[in-house]
Give the backbone structure.
Amino acid sequence: MRKRITGAVLAVVALAAVNAVSPSILAQTSAQTSAQTAARTPARPGAAQAPADLSGVWERIGEIDLGGPGLGRGGGLGTGGAPNFGFSLEEPSMQPWAQERYKAARKGAASVRDRGLETMDPIMYCMPHGMPRIYTTPFALEIVQAPGRVIMMFEALNQSRRIFTDGRKHPAGTPPSYMGHSTGQWDGDTLVVETVGLIGNDQTWLDTLGHPNTDALRIVERIRRLSHDSLEINFLFDDPKAYTKPWGGRKIFQLKPNWELMEYYICEDQFRDSLPKIRRAFQE
Amino acid sequence: MGTVPDRTSRGFLVLLFLLALAVTSAVAFWPGLLAQTPARPRPGAAQAAPDLSGIWTGNRSVGFAPDAGAEAAAKDIAAGIVPWFGFTLEEPPMQPWAAARYKVNREGLEPSEVGSNATNPIMYPYCLPEGMPRSYTISAFEILQVPGQVVYMLFERNHQVRRIYMDGKKHLQGWKPTFMGISHGKWDGDTLVVETENLLSLDGFLWIDSFGHPFTDALRFVERIRRIRPDTLQIDFTFDDPKAYTKPWNARKVFQLKPNWEMTELIVCEDHLQERFLQDMKSGKPAGIP
């Protein structure tokens, strides 16, 4: 717990520091950082043979709202320019039915700092967040790289996800799933990941703001280490059934070399609450 | 090329002989190595950890239908083999309260069937993750060994992650109990020895296996994990939970390598939860799970 609190405090301090500088300086700094990174990184002619190292425990950075009426714990704005609960400040262009769903899910929400309506939220029914929503929880993730695949492990629900980098294709005819099927390839120091085969269709939200998605959703992630301790993911969401055109977002994560991921479950408390009833069933 | 080696070659052969003698003596007189499987003698055990990686399953039945499972389990039990969903055929010595719970969990069931749906914590509406050690009795898993100080076990059910810390330090001390607990490991020759503690038992209502044996937060267990053949993983368990059992008990499970499997997704209660959710959404009166 102490580590997490320290992390939160650090993040807030970091944000204050970031807020103090102008956007142009910010842009310069990040450009400079990438240039420095590029200079430090030896040219990799055999990028496919020697992939970049993305491994580590990563925590999203930016403001962290500690909750409050209508807010939902873990809101605020991320350093990557996206709300913590979503991927973009800019509203994507939705199909009419999707717009309607989104409007219902935003009832009572004042801004992008607020999460979607809890009573309509699939995770309140103990379902997993799935992809890509799992990136919009306040919990950290860990990346490890093995031959032929990159594994992402999320503190939220203690779940994992495989990105196959061995050249295989998405399998045909597999039932849709919460994590979908992900393949990746290296583009220089960037891991480009394509994910398809997601459940969608009213059973998941695309983000914690409450944007809908369908099983037609195709996600492209460009994952890159901006510096040793900073990870950037650029997202592209292509779901013609729910959106009139592809849209995207960007998230920035900070390396937490001394963090250990813990477990977080949504519905653990529900069982605890049921214990008296269960005891009666056992005639105890 | 003559039949009699010249002086240089003879010298070389003598050197080779001495070298071979040195190596074989080292192997023969090094007790650590003798204790290992003969499959792969590894003089540099500490430097090169044995490879346990791969996708492993303890499911001996074909297919995943519950009936297929029960059939295979019945066959296993008849042959004296521990079925996939259990750790032991010999009844572990339970404390009275644990025996009473176990009786309820098995009411009206054949030995080849998993514990009662009514009290099974992974069933609807509870839908809790299996956690450790029960995951071994219900899910395929992948062992991932990557450079670093952690061995990862990725279970197919719920995409669950288990970390075994290998750096010799104590991790996550003083943390609240979790479904996976906290695991520390070390290599003993070709065997990964893992100690797990700090397990969540929810007042002893979670199950240690899929038969329905209870356990408490006092449970600590030791695993000795070894690849006895290239395609076979053997785990010897010692379970020590004095609150639920009158003495520690042992178990052995064997898992088969599935080199061509790709892990799919299996979320507990998925269908029930989706149905319930969609029903509520369509009714216009969403309320969440009761």
